[in-house]
Design brief:
The protein is mostly helical and 83 residues long. It has one domain. It has four helices and no strands. Helix 2 crosses helix 4.
């Protein structure tokens, strides 16, 4: 019975797994992300968060950078966000 239950749970969970498509590591956005975002902290994996959470984190990071008088042109923010 326990074995059947374990197999059922594993089958259910495996249906939820999805392959993550990794962003292009050679894109301008990827290079900006690596160069600018690693100045203050380790780089999180781009697929770690969904777009809603990334959008929030980008606003937070922009504010924190401004507090330290670090600027990033809007075009670079857009490229990082697109990445």
């Amino acid at each position: 019975m326990k074995k059947a239950m374990l197999i059922s749970v594993l089958l259910l969970c495996s249906g939820q797994a999805q392959a993550m498509e990794l962003p292009d590591a050679d894109s301008k956005g990827a290079r900006l992300f690596a160069a600018r975002c690693s100045v203050c902290h380790a780089l999180p994996h781009p697929k770690r968060l969904d777009w809603t959470h990334w959008r929030h984190m980008l606003r937070v990071m922009k504010r924190r950078m401004a507090e330290r008088n670090i600027t990033l042109p809007d075009e670079q923010w857009r490229r990082i966000a697109a990445y």
